[in-house]
Each structure stands twice: as C-alpha cells, then as structure tokens.
Please model this.
Amino acid sequence: MNKQNNILEVIKKNKCVGCGNCMNICPNKAIDMYYEKDGFLYPQIDSKKCISCGKCIKVCQIAEKYNSCKDTKIESYIAITKDKRVYINAASGGIFGTLAKRFLIEFQNSCVVGATYINGKVLHFIVNKSDDIHILQNSKYVQSDLNSVFVNIRKRLDNQQYVLFSGTPCQVYALKLFLHKDYERLFTIDLICHGVPSPLFLEKDLKAYGFEIKALSFRNKKFFFKSRSKFILSVSKSDNRFCGKKIMYNRDPFYSLFTSNLSFRESCYNCNFANINRVGDVTIGDCDSYRLYPDFHMNEATSTVLVNSDKGKFLWGKMHEYFEFRELDLYKEVEVNTQLQKPSKYPENYQDIIEDINSMDIGYLHKKYSRPNDIREKIALIKELILP
Model:
C-alpha cells in the first residue's frame, strides 16, 4: 500500500474534525476543503497532484491522536472578570475577553486569534488592538472556518510575535500539529465544547430572518434584569449585536437542535478531548457547579478556569489580579459538566436529522424541531423581550 492510499485511509469522515491542516500543509496544493451534504467541510485529494509525500498524515489528528503527558497539576477556579465592559459582552464570566485584552497590553508585538462573525460567516480572526477584543467575545455555536489562519500564525511566531489562540480543543490541537514544534511565545486557550453544528445550517437559518445580518449573539446579558446570561439568539442589521430581533433558543430550529446535542459534526460524538486531559494551556467554559459557591456572584454568570500547563500558570499568574476567583472543586464540576467526562451521545436518528436539515426549508424545520415555550419561559419572554 503506497503513501497516497494511506492518506485516503486516514481521512475518515466520521473522525475528521475539518481543521484544514492537510490542505494548508500540502506542498503541491493537492488538497482542498469542500462542503458535503451534512454542511461541514471535508478534505478532497486531487490524485493527479498528490506526490505521496505523507505530510498531510503528520498534521492530521486522526493519525496523530492527542496523548496528554503533562507533569503540571491542573489548577481549577471559579472566576469572573473585574472589567464590567468585558463582562457585559461575554457569554459567561468574561475570562477570555479579559485574558485577551490584558495579553495585548502586557506583551508588546502580540496578537489574539479567536472566532468572530463577519459577512455571514463565523471564522477565526486576528486582532492586534485591545479595543477590538469585543469582536471575538461571546460564544459562537457553530464550527468556525479556520481557512489559512494557521499559516498566518506561524509567520507571526517566526517573526517573534506573541500569539494567544482560542478555539475548540480540536482546533488547538490542530494548530499544535500544524506548527510541529513548541513556540515559546504561543499561548492557547481551549473551550469546554459540547460540539459544533454546521455553518451551512446556520446560514440557512439566518436567511429566514429576511434581512442582512451584520451581527449575532447566542448568549445575552443586556436585556435581562438578572445578569446571568440567557440562551437567546439576537440578530441585528447593525454592528450592535444586542439590538435587533431576539428569539429564545428553543424557538429557532438551529439553536434548538444545538442545545439538544442533535446536529453536531459527526466527529464531535467521538471527541478525544471531552475529559480533563486538556490540550490548551488554559481551559475556559461555563461553571456548571456554581451553586456550590452561593457567596460567589450567585446572580452573575461565572466561568470555570482550568490552568493546565506551565505556560498557563505563567499567563494566569501574570493576569489573575484582573479577576475575582476562588478555588474550584474540579471533580464536583466534572460531575455536573458532562463535557468534562465524555462526548455528547450520538443520536439514533442523526442521519435523518442531517437529511432534514439538508432537504427541508426552514419553515418545516421550525415546525419539526423548534420546541414550544413552557409557562415559565413564556413569562420570561414577555417580561424580558417584549416589555421596555
């Protein structure tokens, strides 16, 4: 069996995370990423261009599975930022926004890389100014397009720039595989991720709103009497993602299927990172065990922060003064935060759901997959979305 056949064997659809490493590393541009029927990007190899060098295998996490061999003991915290401007734009405790903002201030010649919404797409974007960090904040519940951002990151690191990269664990690991060496000036943040729906499904869903969307948000604090963020989809004609049409998560088919764990990329149900052996220097996500800390910002959104490496300790040590935090019982957090235990469960009717998403118009998807509000949700909707 030659190397080319090995490449084709390695790239299995139900394991591929769609990072694009193989495309970006190929010296002969024999690999491109294409959307398939499920709405996700997958690599395709042009056999006429392939020179069987095997470089794509070396940067593929299907072949190079992550194996944590850290000597550093994980430090775990429940935390919230002291910066209220960062907090109001955040999905939970404002940890990423504050770390990113301080990173650009603390380190000269630095940049931050994270996901943002631009021109109808969620993609990874590079920010150089602390005043622009807000465009990378808030959760994006869809698979972001990495495109060639890793190539850009490598150039910056080779030019001695400090880089802070934030993404899902598979994206963080993809970056490390692509770089193929440890850069002292690279710091990484991985997210506690449940899985990612497809960008084509999001595009289809947003078109149904009937206007060009300049900004969107999946989590919202601004419209609520209490400041714990709600699962509200906000779409806007302007760059202000908090102004515009707002709909509760269960009334939108894209968001409803996401919160039910039914529409993820197939590899998400086989995730190698759904445990406490984290790939990022720092891990962040919602703190699901917050009720165990009733005297710590109970009515505000707080975050879990895991400090996983020596680099993570250096970063946290340099910036922890900008947070309020206390030690978190990691194992009690794991008990309630299932994504720190195991991947989301593969739905028995997964293929039927994907077929529906592909073939049905959004009206039928809304009727089939949006869920009705209960009385409590209806009251919340009236009070917090309709009343001024």
About this structure: The radius of gyration is 21 Å. The chain has 14 helices and 13 strands.
